[in-house]
C-alpha cells in the first residue's frame, strides 16, 4: 500500500492538509491562511532564462565582435600609467617597526606579512610532511564582486565594467559591475563613490540570483574571501561609457580570448545556476561530498602568521622581496595613475609571480557524461584545509629542475597533450588589484584513459561540471582556479550550442 503525504501545496505554494484545513496542525493552518509566508524554494523559470542568455550570441546593445574595440577606446579615453618604484617611494605605506610587515598608514586595505605553514597528509602527523615560509597578503575584510543583471529584449543581460587594475598586463579588462573592497566602498581612500554599489550592499532579496562567499588564491592570500553576487534589476541604470550589457553567450565567446575577462568576473560567472541536463555521475552527490569531507578531515594544515622580517629563505632588496632561488613570486611596489578610478593616483605593493602559471582539467566521458578530474588541494591560506582544485595547478618552471617522480601528478599528461586533445585553452590574468603580471594558461584536456583511470590517486576524484556548479552555491568548496575553469567549461558548452 502506498503511503501518502499528509500535506500538499497548491499552485500558489500554499500548504493544505489532505484531511482539510480543520485537521491540519496549527502551524500549517497558519501558513495556509498566509500564502505570502511560503514560497517556492527556487525560481523555476530562472534556469530557462539563463539558458536563453547563454544561447544568445547577439546582445541588445554591443556586438561581441565590437567589445575589443570598445575596450581599446576606453583605454585611450583615460590616463593609465603604472611604473615600478622602490619601496622607499611608497606613499602612505611603510615597513612596520619590529615585524617588518608592509602596512598602510590607515590600518585598512591589506598588509603583506609572513606565513609559516606545516602540512601533514594525515590527521595525526603520521603522513608525509611539508613545511615552508613565505610572504602573504592579509586582507581580512570581505569585498564585493557583483554583477547586475537585467532583461533587455526578453533576454537576461549582465552589466560588465571596463575596469583598470594596475597588475593587469593590458591594464583594462572586463570586470564585474562592482568590484570593491570594504575599504573602497566605505571610502577609506577618500575617493569618489563606487558606482552602483547600493544594488549589492542592500540587495532586494527577491532579485538575488547568486550570493555566496568564495575564496581567493590560498597560496598568496591568508584566508581571503569575497562576496560573489548577481542581482537582477528592473530599474533604469544610468548610462556610463565604462559599462556595457552583454549576454552570457557573448561573455562565453570572450572567455575564449586571452586577458579579456578578469578573474573576479570569472569567479562570479562560475556561480551562475545553469540547469543540470546530465543523467547522472560516476559518484552520487552524497559520495562526492563524503569523499571531500574525508579529505578535509585527514589533512592537517597548520598556518600561522609571522613577522615578514623573519621569513626564512627570502631576501629583502630595495625594489623587491624575493625567494633566494629566484622561484615562486616577488613582492614589488608600483605607482599608479588611472583616470577612471575612485582615486586617480596612488602607490601600493603587489605580488609578482616569476613565470606563467598553469591550471588544467583533465576530462573524460563516462557512459556519455563528461567528468573532470578534481584535486583536493591544500594551500596555506585556505580557511578550511583543502578546496577542490584543477587536476593540475602549478607554475611549471618551479618544477623543471626536479625528476618526474617529484613533479605534480598529471603535469606531463597536460604539457604533452597533442592539440587534438585540447578542448579549451586561453591565458587569463589573475587578480590585477593585488598581483602584478600574474597570468595562467587555462586548459581543458581530453584525458588519455591509460594516464587517467577511473580509480585515480588519493586526493583526486572524478566529478561532473554540474556537480561542481552545485557546489558553487556554497563557499570554500571550489578554489578560484577551478572556478575559472568551470566558467570556461560553461563557455565551451555555450559555444557548442551555438549563439543566435
TrEMBL record:
Secretion signal, residue range per the UniProt entry: none
Q: Which InterPro entries match?
A: EvaA-like, EvaA-like_sf
- Origin, by domain of life? Bacteria
- Domain dTDP-4-dehydro-6-deoxy-alpha-D-glucopyranose 2,3-dehydratase: residue ranges: 65-272, 286-489
UniProt protein name = NDP-hexose 2,3-dehydratase family protein
Species name = Streptomyces chengmaiensis
Kindly list the organism's lineage.
Answer: Bacteria, Bacillati, Actinomycetota, Actinomycetes, Kitasatosporales
